[in-house]
Amino acid sequence: MSSAEEKITEVYLKEELSSRYLSYAMSTIVSRSLPDVRDGLKPVHRRLLYAMRQLHLDPKSGFKKCARVVGDVIGKYHPHGDSSVYGAMCRLAQDFSVRYPLVDGQGNFGNIDGDSPAAMRYTEARMTEFAVALMDGLNENAVDFIDTYDGEEQEPVVMPSSVPNLLCNGSNGIAVGMATNIPPHNLAEVCDALLLMIDKPESSIESLVRKLKGPDFPTGGIIVDKFSAIVDAYTSGKGSFRVRSKWQKEDLGLGQYQIVITEIPYQVIKSKLIERIAQLVIDKKIPLLADIRDESAQDIRIILEPKNRNVDAQVLMEILFKETELETKFNMNMNVLDSDGVPRVMSIAEVCREYLNHRVKVLERRSLHRLQKIIARLEILSGYLIAYLNLDEIIRIIREEDEPKDQLIARFALSDVQAESILNMKLRNLRKLDEAEIKQEFADLSEDKKSLEELLGSDELRWRKIAEEIRLVKDKFGKKTSLGARRTEFAEVDIDNIDISIEARVEKEPITVILSQKGWIRAMKGHLPLSDEFKFKDDDGLLMAVHAQTTDKIVIFDSSGKFFNVNACDIPTGRGFGQPLRLMVDVGVNDDVVDMFVPSSQDSYLIASKSGYGFIVDEHHFIAQTRQGRKIMNVADGDRAILCKKVCGDMVAFIGDNRKILVCKIEEVPVIARGRGVCLQKYKDGGLCDIQIFNEKDGFSFNRSGGTATETDLLSWLGHRAQVGKLAPFGFPKSGKFFK
Fold it and tell me: Any idea which residues carry the catalytic annotation?
């Protein structure tokens, strides 16, 4: 056997793929896409900030080229592409993307119009005060460090995070099989919620939300959700927030006005928003709006000009909220890595608890680190006191003895550290050995040592210290500062009470709606003659066509007994063949369209099945708002709905497959909202073929020898509902229908 064959290992492809894909998925989840609940950072953001700290880019220092920072990050800590690292860095500097920027940028870092940042060789950056607070205590053993990917450097596992960055700045990302999307919040309100949890650890979600209130987006806007919905979202960790633009009505005099939009929803690109609204104006989709223009400079100022002074500004804005990104939904998903590195969706209480637990550990580690430093310093100070009291003897030993260190330890009972510190003192420092200063420092450090030991030994003192730190952070970045003032407002909007007619949303124009035999629907401009030979695909033809206006609703009745509604303005126009009707409404695969019409207010329709059952239904009963339609007629197995006739007379004539006609008063057919109906005409064989509704004085009509015949003498066929009827008059069409 060759050496190459000896190295071959047989593995099952399925098991190997599963194992390797799982490794990739966990690497993506833990090391790339999800933030840590403790500091709210992903690895790339953490490494960026740490690299800037190592370059001493604090707020009071000068700026350095972003290329220098990115180079350090990818060279030392983050072995990925420079464009992704620079993109992450730019986002941390964008005040429209991040509520509390972590990077202070100088140069072009992009804008709210969606323009890209300048190349990293042109831009410069340094850290903000918020970023410095995020890393406060990093040199005091506050967190663990691990080796970098090449083992030459070390990086922090997590930041000490004296500011609650996860909730303040939010986060978003897509991993393998999971995602996260956390909105930013107001720091002062987050601090209030944390203080409440410290004071009352078992606080309810509702009480926390009353402190937290809700998201505070960097671009402002108005959240128009009810308080109960906000509480539900924070309870489960998942939910959505409806965010609207902030607008005001600006009076121009003489009864004219314009609408000024001053804030837009979070993560909406302003230029694309304006393009979308402008296109709607061009396409005449918003007839109440005449024009839009952008007058933005540093602040957002989008001008909307109404069609005329009589346009209701509230109605116009409601239409725009529905049709454009002037209103968006922020879908919250608080999926984060917990303190053990396990991804899970957390409630707001769990997020706050994890952060507070992290702060307690940081406090303990920093206090222990400080205590060890104090103990070491006290030991050295004790040696200095001994040296001060025995200075001449110590000088003699150092000058005359071959092993002065051992002699000092033996002569004065010094420790190795004390002896070493005395020997390392420079001659010029000997005169500084002032006994009073040493004793004062010793006393101060002893007091600090006692305080730290009490702190480490008492849960109550530790929580009191955490609360004090949170209050300091709140004062530094709170609502009294320009950065900390709340930007997003709250309002509950009752859309149901705002009447928005379709005429306000669509330009009224005449159209001809055409439905083909194969189920393709389209609209053509103008009221074309319904007898025209419209073009269709091969093996297809005209099923029915109606005249309508773009503001009308088109009602479709199918053989299953369902009514569907389609907005005429939504039907595709143009020179093509349209689109399948089933893409617009859920007509069953085995069901056929029975009728298509434009309803009028207070109209009634007689609907009937093949078996001869039917009833009258009012127009308001079959208006359906969903594509699933509304079931009005219940048809038995093997039966189907075949007719839908507008009630426009006082008499009705039925004819069956047996060519017998029954005429009765229309009032004998009941008006109901839903059901199978009543028997209209009895049949021994076959079923119902056609219906005609007419006025008694006019009689019923039918095709005969290429013309129209009318029977006004109804006595031969007059009867009551559910009777058999009499044979049709001579010359009645063989099709069994009054008119083809």
Answer: 122
